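Work through this protein:
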Amino acid sequence: MSTQRNVAVIVGSLRKESFNRKMAQALMGLAPEHLHCAIQEIGDLPMYNQDLETASPPAAWQSFRDAIRGADALLFVTPEYNRSLPGGLKNAIDVGSRPIGHSVWSGRPGGVISVTSGMLGALAGNQALRQALTGVNVPTLPHPEIYVGQAATLFDAAGKLTSDSTRELLQKYMNAYVHWIERNAKA
């Protein structure tokens, strides 16, 4: 029997009908029963400003930090904005990494999948996110790397994944991700 694990799923796109959110939902549906996956929203986080890092930081920061602290692992699903990661996602990483010495990210195993309606699968955004996660000590699954392009063709009107080949690819990824969590999660 596998250990129950909580996975914080963080979607880099803030758009309500984003392909990244739809992909995150598809991934969550492929997770084994012992992984409890929940999306942690980032859209309402105030921009990080050290002046607000007082004994009473913004409530949204504290709630987000508590949610990440309660996670055994992290799964990021992100688009690419201007050859990098979205600003809202970078802000969430900054919020969680502070105050210095109290990062909620450190040591939690992570996975990164990038999704775009374009051809290249948000490759640069994926790599930029991986670089940022290295800076906050998130051991990130190195392989398989998943870059999903042409996302507009993969979902039906209800937001369900319709591509069997993409589903198979995502299942292989989730299988590898489960092993990565077990190798790297804190006891």
About this structure: The two ends are 16 Å apart (CA to CA). The CA atoms of residues 7 and 178 lie 10 Å apart. Residues 164-184 form the longest helix (21 residues).
